[in-house]
């Protein structure tokens, strides 16, 4: 680290010849420029960490293409469109000249700015944390283009603008970004480039002139997009893993005689996480696994059933807890109340059930390791593999692939499936790349669920029907406790238990929110919107119970209680207005509303639900309003809200992981039932116009969907739904 | 020996007769556009056209293929197929994209037999194809758009 920042910056900004195709500015690392699939190691450890980070993010070629280096994983949320859009706007590029490529794993250059020295995708933060970083990068590149043109044309830089991919002078002189790329690459990058004003945005925001088509639409519509499951490497072998049937069980004895007789099966390996079968192809590996006889040691395994776990969670809630929010005097409020309302909620475990079951390709060769996987936290996975293999992290290279969904599943503190692949490769002791592919059953039985939860609520009303007291008590397993992320727990209790409940936006004079962590031997994980999933449901369904008890309209009650949160109120009113809240509906049809803030984005949804005579029901429509700051690519924002709503509906209506004597009872899509097209309502998304910095959209659509539907059903049946999932019908 | 055509090419197969078509296509023929999702014909990610019918290739053994015509997403070039692929892009249907090869194959098979499907027809034809990103309503919109395109 002896190089001066200035020298380092100059070095980074060298012009790099790329195999005769042109030149790129700001490309300090040729491995980023090539196909990034098996490139030379990135050994540039003397990284310049000065704020001129644009040189890590933008490559401009003389063929007039602008390539944005994407530090986040695309798991469907559209970062390969949204992140290039930010650059294109500031640079003044045309959308059709934009390209993208994944960055290598590198927490010094490609860290999530909200997380510190970790490269990662999650918490709906990709656009939000990149916003200023990529605008600055784009603006700096624009100024370099302008200065290059000024020099060439002998005119003042102030008379030059860049738009539609061209630098233009008032005299009529023009040159494309690509034509100026080489000259621009020799300009000293500005330290504080001037950013555009929001009102001057042309490509991004709700007032943009047209939709920016998704960058990944073509490859994903024609079967050419490459996911981890599609990775092909020379001499690659396929692996499957036999996992313990109970969480916490271990291998006691393996008889692999029959498995090794299966044609194509090459190795059976015992690892700390189970027994691996390595074969020429996946089908042979599967047949080999079927032929194994394994004796498991389940002495330390979790053996409880779901009903016992529910009873245990109820017991935790009946015992002393830690207050995470205390305002006013809840005891006094209840003592002086003229009416009290109580309700309890039970939430099941939920599987992420990504369409692509978990997988990883990994190769150990010449003291280096290459990993190909859809990773939400590349630098974490690299660290895990380094620890398992003994290879220094700088020699572990992760090549990020498209992920066939994730919803949090590909951000695992112990890197489960990546760790397994490393263990298999290490146990094998050969240089063959190993592709570990979980089956749907492995994936669904593999734990890392959204935790079960139990919530208890009490509210007090005064003699005028005003809400005077609100008391929530919540328990669930901690997601972070006992993981490398434990230090993120700021108080006595993992925040995920009450997130979204603790921040209840409604003005109630006396509020207490308490929580205690439960201990169960079933591995849990963040699941699209994490603790907001159960807290949005319980708080919003309970609030409708209060509205009913005090004979108030659910929208009017919320408006009355949102005096301190004008943004929430505006979003609520927009959803109510667009749904025609209050207008007449057939007698078997009703609306329900829910409002929730998560990841700094406020979302309100109105569900319109029809109840049939036999108790079955149909969600006809969800009207959704969202304030997410500037909507960089509004159509992608809408898609995320649509998808987030579908994910929330799916869980609320049909999903549950249950256990019988420690064994998970659902192992595939016939028993764990996801939402299908015939259940999908019409969805109408309205984005609040804003000049604030963008906030998350990947998760915030999910939390309000369930309670909006439950509140509509409550309006139809008079009964609140306090146990999820709702199932295909309700009691009328 | 099983003989069939895969995207127009004649294949002679004499391996494990129980191997599902999906794994033959992915691992041995090395065409990876068709995806593995469930292995029990419950999600549709592996959908191919076998003799023109949308078929779950994860549950079809190689022994059942003698004389069959198999088309995967890589070989989909019918008018309906092209219209579906275009409509998918025009409406930016995809999110993670993993299920979409199967969705496109299913939609192309639907339009081959029903030129102007209703929402209900679409629900019936497409409900075997799971999308965890819940792109369903865009799938509906894109199928209608493809139908209109084919009519024109």
TrEMBL record, chain A:
Pfam family, one: MoCoBD_1
SUPFAM superfamilies, per database record: Molybdenum cofactor-binding domain
Domain named Aldehyde oxidase/xanthine dehydrogenase a/b hammerhead: residues: 222-300
Coiled coil: none
GO molecular-function term, one example from the UniProt record: oxidoreductase activity
Protein name listed in UniProt: Oxidoreductase
Organism of this sequence: Marinibactrum halimedae
TrEMBL record, chain B:
Protein name: Oxidoreductase subunit alpha
Domain [2Fe-2S]-binding: 72-144
Lineage: Bacteria, Pseudomonadati, Pseudomonadota, Gammaproteobacteria, Cellvibrionales
Domain 2Fe-2S ferredoxin-type: 4-58
An annotated Gene Ontology molecular function: oxidoreductase activity
Keyword Iron: yes
PANTHER family listed in its UniProt record: BLR6218 PROTEIN, OXIDOREDUCTASE WITH IRON-SULFUR SUBUNIT
SUPFAM superfamilies according to UniProt: 2Fe-2S ferredoxin-like, CO dehydrogenase ISP C-domain like
InterPro entries xref list: 2Fe-2S-bd, 2Fe-2S-bd_dom_sf, 2Fe-2S_ferredoxin-like_sf, 2Fe-2S_ferredoxin-type, 2Fe2S_fd_BS, Beta-grasp_dom_sf, Diverse_Oxidoreductases
Pfam families, alphabetized: Fer2 (PF00111), Fer2_2 (PF01799)
Superkingdom of source: Bacteria
Key words of the record: 2Fe-2S, Iron, Iron-sulfur, Metal-binding, Oxidoreductase
Protein's UniProt keywords contain Magnesium: no
